[in-house]
Amino acid sequence: MPQKRILIVDDEPEVRKIISSILQSPKGGYEVREAGDVETALELLKEEPFDHVLCDIYMEPLTGIDFLRKVKSDGLNINIIMISGKADVEQALEAISLGADDYVHKPITAGQLLFVLRRIEEQKRLKEENERLRAEVQERYSFHNMVGKSTKMQVVFDVIKKIADYKTTVLITGESGTGKELVAKALHYNGARKNAPFIAVNCGGIPENLLESELFGHAKGAFTDAIRAKKGLFEEADGGTLFLDEIGDLPLTLQVKLLRVLQDEEVRPVGATNVVKVDVRIVAATSKDLEREVKRGSFRKDLFYRINVLRISLPPLRERREDIPILVEHFIEKFNARLGTKIKGISSECMQLLMDYPWPGNVRELENVMERTMVLAEGEVIQREDLPPYLLENLVVEDNVEKLDIEDSVLSIKKCSRVLEKKLIQRALQRTGGNKTQAAKLLEISLPALIYKMKDYGLFKSQF
């Protein structure tokens, strides 16, 4: 674990020396910097990150109260402990009202100072934990709440249980909307790191020029807007899990740096000369075929091998249709609680329509459909007319595919077989959202054979 860093602000060198010796002792274990006045302290805060500040109240020309007001107005998230003499108790209480975390009396003793620091650190830990819990809004991330009774999902649940406690890097693959972040959270909250931070970042959602600073942090002056030093997400996730979503979108330049972090377990902030040791479990996810990206040269082979240690492949919803009824039930319960709706169920006709739809957006699309439907439904039971129009239009196309439309005068088995074969291919493509690889599996033929037949029947020009 990195040493916690403390800035001592006091205009008396002897006092700073006494405090430094206490903090740097084996019982303390802190890294210490010193400032003899408020101006120097404010400059140090811009240049370096600190966990605590110990600041004397009575200094000239600017006082500890002036320092406190400036830090709070700048919005710095840092613990501040004021140092007061016996005659400064009223000012110490004023400092507490202005946002100081605590105060200590002179003469300072090791027992008093370390007790206050440990208490503040424990309070901060509990506060951060409570904030994480509130942010989850009572969401539970155990694998039990990743709904699915299909064999493929049961395999996923078993893998999560087996590997949750290990620090080994995990790669989660699957189409968009299959629940990759939910798996990452299940790995974290069911493992030994569950009480430490879970930090998620979308590698494709942050501009390339900002992503490096976001991941690794930066030193003051590293670039135009770097007015103070900043910790990166690797440091924020220290002791916990860093979830790198859509890692296939990570620029090649950052892939090199990420590989070095995974190998050395240390990060170098942008513009800094020092490195920081980190203890982070990496869980990466992608909707891309990384093997293909490696062949194309857009993803480094060595990084792929480094993150592809344990892989969890999430099936698309169309490959686990037996999970749709219990997912629907789950979403009805979830949105009744969240939205205050009173939906009791869904008609058998409507359920069959949901079972027949190909769900190109996977579970996320089903969740969005259920939320919309429950808000707009007229009765307590969801009916066909409550479903989104686009979904019904798609199903009308599916219904038309079922009709072979063969003339009564045609008796040729060969001709009828071609009509039937064409309709079956259309149906398979419809159910897989146009995914030829999956359609070939449903048809139980090879992909080259499917492509040949599609060309033969002119289906490349069709809209599915």
Automatic annotation (TrEMBL):
<dbReference type="InterPro" id="IPR009057">
    <property type="entry name" value="Homeodomain-like_sf"/>
</dbReference>
<protein>
    <submittedName>
        <fullName>Type IV fimbriae expression regulatory protein PilR</fullName>
    </submittedName>
</protein>
<dbReference type="Pfam" id="PF00158">
    <property type="entry name" value="Sigma54_activat"/>
</dbReference>
<dbReference type="InterPro" id="IPR001789">
    <property type="entry name" value="Sig_transdc_resp-reg_receiver"/>
</dbReference>
<dbReference type="InterPro" id="IPR025944">
    <property type="entry name" value="Sigma_54_int_dom_CS"/>
</dbReference>
<dbReference type="InterPro" id="IPR025943">
    <property type="entry name" value="Sigma_54_int_dom_ATP-bd_2"/>
</dbReference>
<dbReference type="InterPro" id="IPR027417">
    <property type="entry name" value="P-loop_NTPase"/>
</dbReference>
<dbReference type="InterPro" id="IPR002197">
    <property type="entry name" value="HTH_Fis"/>
</dbReference>
<dbReference type="GO" id="GO:0005524">
    <property type="term" value="F:ATP binding"/>
</dbReference>
<keyword id="KW-0010">Activator</keyword>
<dbReference type="Pfam" id="PF02954">
    <property type="entry name" value="HTH_8"/>
</dbReference>
<dbReference type="InterPro" id="IPR011006">
    <property type="entry name" value="CheY-like_superfamily"/>
</dbReference>
<dbReference type="InterPro" id="IPR058031">
    <property type="entry name" value="AAA_lid_NorR"/>
</dbReference>
<dbReference type="GO" id="GO:0043565">
    <property type="term" value="F:sequence-specific DNA binding"/>
</dbReference>
<keyword id="KW-0597">Phosphoprotein</keyword>
<keyword id="KW-0238">DNA-binding</keyword>
<dbReference type="Pfam" id="PF25601">
    <property type="entry name" value="AAA_lid_14"/>
</dbReference>
<dbReference type="InterPro" id="IPR003593">
    <property type="entry name" value="AAA+_ATPase"/>
</dbReference>
<keyword id="KW-0067">ATP-binding</keyword>
<dbReference type="Pfam" id="PF00072">
    <property type="entry name" value="Response_reg"/>
</dbReference>
<keyword id="KW-0547">Nucleotide-binding</keyword>
<dbReference type="GO" id="GO:0000160">
    <property type="term" value="P:phosphorelay signal transduction system"/>
</dbReference>
<keyword id="KW-0805">Transcription regulation</keyword>
<feature type="modified residue" description="4-aspartylphosphate">
    <location>
        <position position="56"/>
    </location>
</feature>
<dbReference type="InterPro" id="IPR025662">
    <property type="entry name" value="Sigma_54_int_dom_ATP-bd_1"/>
</dbReference>
<dbReference type="GO" id="GO:0006355">
    <property type="term" value="P:regulation of DNA-templated transcription"/>
</dbReference>
<keyword id="KW-0804">Transcription</keyword>
<dbReference type="InterPro" id="IPR002078">
    <property type="entry name" value="Sigma_54_int"/>
</dbReference>
<feature type="domain" description="Response regulatory">
    <location>
        <begin position="5"/>
        <end position="121"/>
    </location>
</feature>
<feature type="domain" description="Sigma-54 factor interaction">
    <location>
        <begin position="146"/>
        <end position="375"/>
    </location>
</feature>
